[in-house]
Amino acid sequence: MFGNERNPSYSQIAIKVCPLLALIFSVLVTIVTLYIYEGISPPFIFISIQVYLNWYSICTISRGTMTMQNNSKQSKCNSVAINMNYTNDSSPKLKYWYCEKCFCYTYKPTQHCGACKKCFHSRDHHCFFIGGCIIQQNMGNFILICFYTSLACLYSLSVVGPYLYDNLKHIANVESGVFNIVLNFCFPVAFARFVVAGETSCLLLITLFNILFSVCVLCSIYGSWKLFNCLTGRQRYYPHIAKKQSMQEIFGNYGIYNFLFPYNGLRGSKAIDGKFELKEI
Questions:
Q1: Which ranges of the sequence are coiled-coil (predicted)?
Q2: Rounded to whole angstroms, how far apart are CA atoms 161 and 42?
Q3: Percentage above 90 pLDDT, the chain
Q4: pLDDT-derived band at 214, boundaries 50, 70, 90
């Protein structure tokens, strides 16, 4: 699916390029926002730091999480699950899960990620823009990064928007209506004006504005949807395991402090007492 090392496929290239593009775009947005703002904005700096800290936490947890392997079993098996019968027929059966790509057995059901090239317990999906897998252990960080990314985009829109409006109003004449000026905020209109009339004024800023608006809407909706699913028990992790989670189970014992500093991931555990350690989920 992901090709081999000698001939990398498009998926492998996307896996390596997407996180880099996301990082470059975030740095570009920060520079443009602070340049137009003409100074240092403490709220925007705080929001940006939160985005990068949660980004780092997600990647740290994704790369540091290990499956509960059983290396004592040597025989290969074509089946995904192996039932180990006890001497007593009434005893429960112990299932071992074998991954043909990792060449190992685990005690719990796992799902292999071709991008991370490893298996995960309680996996949700792989985020190409972050560069790591979203699992039960870092779902709280993923919700936080969606929340802070939408806030960062909203702040940048509040800075770039008025600046762009003043420039478009100056270009389109003072008599131009508000609707016509706002219509020029749309990328298709600006691009058509560039192709037909060769006008390049504010084209890059209009493109940036449209991308920021799209990212803001998508992150706010997707992050809210994930939080709602976790709280209501609709969030399903492989293999289709779902249960209601409290705010403490999602974000850890630090509670609201995780919104100020992502302790989960930076400390390697969701709680000081180790109740929600990665290996126990």
A1: none
A2: 19
A3: 26
A4: very high
